[in-house]
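Researcher: Re-running this chain for the archive, since the previous output was lost when a drive failed. Same request as before.
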Amino acid sequence: MDNNRKFTKLDRNLDVSEEELKTLQELERNDDGFKDEENTKYKKAGSPIAPLGGGDALYFDYTDEYPAFEDVIAIQFQPAGKVYWYFYPEQKNPGNELKQGDIIVAYSERGMELAKVLNKSMDDYKHQNKINFIKNGFVRKAEAADFEREKQLEIKAQSAKEVILRVNKELGIKMKIIKVKYTLDDSKAIFYFSANGRVDFRELIKRLAYELKRRIEMRQIGVRDTTKIMGGLGPCGRALCCRKHMHNFIPVSIKMAKDQNFSLNPNKISGICGRLFCCLGYENATYEELRKDYPQEETAILDRSSNRRGYVKKVNAIGENITVFFPENPEKKEKAEEKTFPKSALEFNNGWFINLPQSEPADHDLDNITPIVAKEKELLRESSNTENQERPERPQQNPNNRKPAPKDSSNPNNPNAKRNPNWHGNIKNFKKFPPRKEGKENQGGNQG
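Model: Regenerated structure tokens:
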């Protein structure tokens, strides 16, 4: 073990090296949102969704009235993507009704795309600002020709991906192409890529525009966006949360992992994207509610039974107990030790105390055991006799009907055995003589 390592103390129960601390801080970095879905610099009251290709779609202005719940629809352009609220009061007219699961054509900040209608939530609707609503963005319900066009554009996108990989190799640009997408009107090609640091792709855009004959847009995305687009399975064996149901990234911190008693091992608390587990974020509210009745780690606490002062080392809100560290006190000959106390022993009165109730006598105390009296012994004896009587007895075998022992010449006590020529009547005088050489005798007899 390297004794020259410098440690930074995060809490009283765990020491983390500086290298591990830097790794944990890197895991804690969070993206503000899906960068492939919304460009915040274009989001202003009354401004168009996108300067180019956004059609007539505009964000609500401050002078507009707040739209009614019946006049808006909730849609998303990608699986588990960001939820957008579009103002479409015409849906109340006959023939224009929209229900959950319908596919429509609408303008996004990228251009014209296919979108899926979601089930509206009143709680989410109340949390929206006026600027979050978009008007003039709905185009029409999707038709069969729109789906066929979408399939053809996906084939074009694969060809465009091969083109950019070839051009990158010629120009020596190091980037990883994650996804290529064409807008539904085939007016723009969007390239999503990831790279370490900033990339100068001015020459790349010129080459792509010349070969593809359309407007080019390059979008650099982070590791969480990359994982969401590509998908996969998490350590739990299920589909990734960001790909399945998470519409927005939740900020996750190391403190959440500590409060949930996770080991601060970067390999155990990070997902395949290289960031902290998203499930730490949406499970943290439950732990915060459970930990309200507990002291924080490193809080001073007094044990009234032993009159010792210690510090809270660990809080187990699920198991409803805490672990307290009592330091060494040479004057009172008290050694350093750790003890676990239940939640019922905690008491707060201008400070935290441990007030254990007096323990009641155990049920298995030897003084409370009643000895077995003679009558009980007799009853036990009778019960054992009845058990023996209930068991079927084996039929006794007649000694005259016994089968004779098998003939074994090696056992001299067996009367049925053939006489051993080496047997001389007494077991003490039993000797094993070498066997007779019948071959020579036969030869002599034949000669005579």
